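Dear support,

I submitted the protein below through the web form. The confirmation email said the job was done, but the results page showed an empty box. After a refresh the structure appeared. I'm attaching both so you can tell me whether what I see now is the final result or a partial one.
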Amino acid sequence: VNGDVQNQLFNLRVWVGSLDSEPVYQRELLKPFYPSNLLDTLQGFTTYRLEDFLGNATPTFIPAGDFFVGWQQVSAAQLGIPVGFDIQNPCGCNFSNITGEWKVFPASVQGALMIRPVFGMATNTSTGASEVANAGTSGVEVYPNPTAGTLFIRLKVGDFSDYQMELYNEVGQLVGRAALGPEISLGNLPGGVYFLRIESVKTGEVQQQKIFLTK
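What the results page shows now:
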């Protein structure tokens, strides 16, 4: 559906009690996964474990009562990230927020968004490429952070040609994409928070890091 959207980005949110409250869980700049025949066999669902930006598990307590799980499209695209829709089980529990106000789906759209919260004590595994927490795992070291304008890259294994990098600003807009090199210049960007995503073209392994640019 919608072709290959794995390079688009979305933010994941969990709310308790009301959609107008602050989310109890937030994760920025996720990429959609395709179903895995090994991990996600129930009608083609994919799994997104609740983690922080460095890939550490983030257990989230959900009390009895209403709660909501949703996503925010980040990438600008004519066709956004698709989600399954079960027309056999209308629930009246689907909401959208396009104009800044939460609205229930119109009565003419009967069904249920195929979002399936998984509860329990077990640590689930996300579908797709692994998110690594540090340079010791991925073989890529990024420094200094904070930086005044230049990031230096040190490889412990492999060659720079084995990696691609993407840089996003705080609102998820792509501001740079290139083959990885020994230096990344941020001198033409305003100060603030950025997100650096480095991906191995051989293994699909991904390292994400929050970068603070001071000017």
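Response: this is the final, complete result; the empty box was a page-load delay. Helices lie at 135-138.
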